[in-house]
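Limitations

Structures in this collection are predictions, not experimental determinations, and the ligand pose is part of the prediction. Treat each record accordingly. The example that follows, with nicotinamide-adenine-dinucleotide as the small molecule, is included so readers can see exactly what is and is not provided: the inputs are given verbatim, and the output is the predicted complex.
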Amino acid sequence: MDMNNSRKMITIPYIIGDGIGPDIWKAAQIVLNTAIEKAYHGKSQVQWLEVLAGEKAFQKVGKYLPDETLETLRKYKVGIKGPLTTPVGGGFQSLNVILRKELDLYACQRPVHWFKGLPSPLINPQGLDVVLLRENTEDVYSGIEFGANSSKNLLLLKILKNKFPSKFQCLRFTKEVGIDLKPISKEGSQRLVRAAVKWAIENKRNKVTLIHKGNIMKYTEGAFLQWGYQLIEEEFPDYAYTQQQWQQTKNAYGENNANREKDMALQSGKILINDMIADVAFEQAISQPTSFDVIAATNLNGDYLSDAFAALAGGVGISPGGNINYETGMALFEANHGSAVSLANQNKANPSSLILSGSMMFRFLSLTEAANLIIRGIKATIRRGEVTFDLYSQITGNTLLGTQEFAEAVSASID
Ligand code: NAD
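Predicted complex:
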């Protein structure tokens, strides 16, 4: 951050992304620059610094993720990125996963908020306002993979057979079997749960739901839950109802009534902490999504769930995200969706996800006024029915805009 005669210049590295990345980045930049200008009238300015990753990096320097990219992101701490393509079933490891691991961005924060005018499969989407914090560095995304018939895979099978015969017998088929490991640690679980509860307290939310599949994967998903509750009891005794306290309250007041839960938590000035098995969470995401508030989830469950929630409020084209380490202050904000290659270079893709990720980033950088202006601009544009094709196809009576024209409309709505 450069300070000069009370002017503030903030350098923010960006990765343009693959597929629709260049289309949506060009559009997002218009809105982000307008918001900064309108909020600070030249007193705070942003200097965008391109860093390479993905196909563009490969074409320019022969590497998908050059070391300089990581160094620059580490230097400036906060960045923004478009989507990066990952080959399925082979090729290189996901660059997104590598970035999150290399920079230790352990919490993926994904807010899902319904704006008036957005399509939704819900009859009553008003009040949908969920913030999902997903653990971002562990679980089956750790990259500890042993492809079927590879020498390491065969060695692992041999060790299992000789050293842990009862576990070997758990394998339904012992030949041509791909194996991924699913590590979930106490430290990894607790820092994610800590971040979720702190965020809930700071943002005056009512409830944090720990989502897990601990009934089946007891030592990973089940441990996530136990360690989560343990941390809450130790670190937030004055702020949170724990499971045990909650059970007592529930016994006194009656069973699962989402609104009453919220009321009681509010009245007591505490955050309600409850937990839910992942499959039930998916069912409730559809049947009573407004009963969720803040969610803390393991990596794979959180990945699936965040897209499921996004579908309730306009889809992945409009749901933003940030990968954050709350201790180091490192953060990389990104569009939630992928590179949607079939839409690339057609001025069709919805840039809202990246624009709203920019708003999250500005909020993180305490550029709060600019962050708020972006939300206002997006809301006003959608309320007028000016939308890109993904939303246009779902609601009649709207006006169809291209990627660029949508960004210009949002920009013009910022005042
Ligand atoms: P995708 O998100 O690219 O596409 C899924 C669907 O959503 C498609 O129908 C697509 O047309 C639509 N869509 C996505 N973004 C849109 C937008 N902005 N506007 C309008 N419609 C949009 O998912 P995919 O096809 O499974 O993945 C493509 C590639 O992206 C894969 O290589 C995948 O690994 C990668 N990916 C990257 C990220 C990331 O960079 N964080 C996230 C998810 C997927």
